[in-house]
Amino acid sequence: MITIEEIRKPVQQEMTLFEEKFRLSMKSRVPLMDKITNYILKRKGKQMRPLFVMLSADLCGGITESTYKAAALIELLHTATLVHDDVVDDSNERRGLFSINALWKNKVAVLVGDYLLAKGLLLALDNEEFQLLKIVSTATREMSEGELLQIEKARQLDIEESVYLEIIRKKTASLISSCTAAGAYSSGTGAETVSKMATIGELVGMSFQIKDDILDFKGSKKVGKPNGVDIKEQKMTLPLIYLLNKSSYLEKRHILNIVKNHHLNPAKVSEVIRLVNESGGIEYAEQKMAGYTSRALEILREFPDKPSRKSLENLITFSTMRSL
After folding, report:
1. Cβ atoms within 10 A of the Cβ of 161, count?
2. Rounded to an integer, what is the distance from CA 122 to the centroid of its chain?
3. Which residues lie closer than 8 Å to 181 by C-beta, 6 or more apart?
4. Could you give the CA distance from residue 308 to residue 84 in angstroms, rounded to a whole number?
5. Which residues contact 204 (CB under 8 A, 6 or more apart)?
6. Three-class SS of residue 128?
7. Secondary structure (3-state) at 93
8. Vertex 55, ends 52 and 57: CA angle to 5°?
9. Contact present, 159 and 149 (Cβ < 8 Å)
10. Nearest CA-CA partner of 135 in 208, 202, 65, 84
């Protein structure tokens, strides 16, 4: 199994330098803000988004000073959205650690999110990186629209596969697409290559989110049982949509009734998980996921054979073939 350390090798030095630059980009003269941003930095995981930016830049022409700004801009704006998301979802945890709103309350969390958003905008404007700002701001807009579309459709519950795919394209795929597009653009390559890299990122994002939805039904190796978090939150994901499409009118009514009225009942949630698994919903979603992944790899293999391309291939596989 390929490790994230091996994937990082072609850009290891650049990633280390990025982390230093990113830390500086979050600095504030207000002690409380510095305390909170330091806490955020300690929670940072595998740095997948900056890694997509760096590898894309290296593949398309080389890492430049603009590449570091692109990676920092994406991390600042994305971190801002995560802080705000935790407030919206009233979530007390992120990656097993306390969220900002859990430790410092909602008012502070919203202000921190606003601060990070402003820092990202100023980073781009102060360095006249207008195209990078456009790429990342477009993704941020898409993510917000995707969340609102999901909220709107959740009230109806019975959504079509095409609507689900549009939601995840906006919510998840747009961000990965901005990483690969911004990385390519920062290298100085042409518009056609930037567009091609944006497509690769979008396909990877689609695959990544479908994988996330599958894991919710297949369960966690750590706890030895399915999670069912999406059902509890009344989210309509691809395995469940497949089950509903295969069900009779009465079966469909029964399933939707559970999701709508009994989504907090563990026994009822387990029933839906069982029905999804028995219907072939997991296999169907896995086929869809594999289709997006293979298309992304197909386009990527049109690029020159170099270490950064191999690492991008491995990063795509790592992102979409992971397990809990």
Report:
1. 15
2. 24
3. 56, 135, 194, 195, 197, 198, 201
4. 33
5. 173, 176, 180, 292, 293, 296, 316, 319, 320
6. coil
7. strand
8. 105
9. no
10. 202
Reported confidence tier of residue 322, pLDDT bands at 50, 70, 90: low
Backbone CA torsion sign across 24, 29, 35, 36: negative
d(CA 317, CA 309): 12
pLDDT at 109 over 60: yes
| Residue 182 structure tokens | 């911004």
Please write the tens of the pLDDT for every residue from 148-188. 888 887 777 768 899 999 999 999 999 999 999 999 999 99
Beta-bridge mates of residue 94: 97
Taking the CA of residue 271 as centre, how many other CA atoms within 13 Å lie in the half-sphere pointing to its CB? Answer: 14
CA–chain centroid gap for 187, Å, is 23
d(CA 218, CA 56) in angstroms, rounded, equals 32
234: left (phi over 0), alpha (psi -120 to 50) or beta: left
In our burial notation (b when 16+ CB lie closer than 10 A, e otherwise), range 1-12 reads eeeeeebbebbe
Domains in the chain, please, with CATH?
A: 14-91+99-308 (1.10.600.10)
What secondary structure letter does DSSP report for 40? H
Backbone angles phi, psi at 68, to 5 degrees: -65, -40
CA 219 to chain centre: 20
* Residue whose C-alpha is closest to residue 147's, from 75, 76, 85: 85
Give 169's DSSP letter. Answer: I
Enclosing H/E stretch for 65:
helix 65-88
Angle between helices 266-279 and 191-218 (to 10 degrees): 120
Of 316, 315, 300, 320, which Cα lies nearest the Cα of 59?
300
Look up residue 320 and give its two tokens: 């979409």
> What is the C-alpha separation between 23 and 21, in angstroms, rounded?
5
Residue 4 tokens, joined = 């994230």
Residues 214-222, mean pLDDT to the nearest whole number: 69
Cβ-count burial 290-306 (b if 16+ within 10 Å, e if not): eebbebbbeebeebeee
